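User: As part of a screening pipeline, I want to sanity-check one entry by hand. Below is the sequence and the SMILES for zinc ion. Please return the complex as structure tokens so I can compare it with the automated output.
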Amino acid sequence: MSRADLVIRGRRVVLAEHVAAASIHIHNDRIVRVADYDQISSTCELVEADPDSIIMAGLVDTHVHINEPGRTEWEGFLTATQSAAVGGVTTLIDMPLNSIPPTTSVAGFNAKLAAAENKCYVDVGFWGGVVPGNSGELSSLKNAGVFGFKCFLVPSGVDEFPHVTETDLREAMPELARLDSLLIVHAELPGPIENRIPALKSADDYSIFLASRPREAENDAIDLMIRLSREFGTRVHIVHLSSADAIPAIRKAQDEGVKITAETCPHYLHFESETVPSGATEFKCCPPIRERDNRERLWDGLNDGTIAFIVSDHSPCPAVMKLPERGDFLGAWGGIASLQLRLPVVWSESRKRGFTLLDLAKWLCSEPAKQVGMEDRKGSIAEGFDADLVIWNPDQQFEVTPNALLHRHKISPYRGELLQGVVQKTFLRGRKLYDGREVKGPPAGNLLISNSKSQISD
Ligand SMILES: [Zn+2]
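Assistant: Here is the complex for your manual check:
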């Protein structure tokens, strides 16, 4: 056994099966032993958590839009990963669109890697993209190290990342099955949306926007993906599930052995359409935040495991694109930036409903790590894992203020919200990254490269 050079210990450490007092022994960047609280050596550095604080694996967020290169004015690696560090997130996977070029070719992937070099405060990996006509690129993108592939079934909002049709999927999905790559899907179909386009050109009433992105668009898209996954054997994952009506179909498919999983996001679990203020376009995202009853059924889907985990879908843009002066929900850019707030939002809501720290660690850490094949290295506190840790106080309450958010543009529907769960310290591979006041540089995050055995190298 390697000798530890750092021990981090506390009274409430979230381990795989239970929460217990424990000491975490770290050598270089890995956890070498998890021992009883009192089993510490006198020769190494000791970090002691407050008695009430939680020590949990660093959060893994597999749904983050960083937009660099090309739209760095929306968000960049420096600002996004600092925001991650303050939010206790130590691993994130960047989405293949909104940057220019998009990550739909090896050249696009190389542009991402070059742009991210020496700018990441946390470990960062990358999704590739499936767009019409790029099936021939998928194998080389996979070999280059993307963690899987994203597609849209509706227009994505940016011209350089067009959406796919069933015909395109029939070309790409057999190839993805052959590569054993995961296809992650923005599941809304255009048909039901086109049928509901309002006669109005603009609307400050949230209910008009909500009606324009009906649940059927999601439900029908998910039915299509279940059918195609069953036909081709491709592993499929539904991103940002908002329509709880689709949960029974997903569960049934899972029970029948279809390789389909789903995630949802903090904003669908916290907000409700009934109370979105008029003109408050910071609440706009696609698919939309839906009704209170729908939200509670998403919680039920998490409870029974149909929805595997919760990721931020951190999707920032300059404030002006939210059309704040007009308050126009139809014209505003859709997206909510919450990389930094995922822990307190999900904790505040889950503790109200009787969920535990073990549930929280599963949804925020271990299950997202598993999605991208990193379950033997990230997302848990255990021997052999990277020493990525977050120490946080579960009872402390704070008010969300724009100045405390480190991502590029401070516009947020969470502004003024009172949340529980304050991050005190974040460690990345054994190094203190955030001490409760500031993020420590220089940026020392690794760029994560997936290899064909679903492991990572750095
Ligand atoms: Zn997204």
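Points to compare against the pipeline: The first helix runs from residue 77 to 86. Confidence is low (pLDDT under 50) at residues 453-458.
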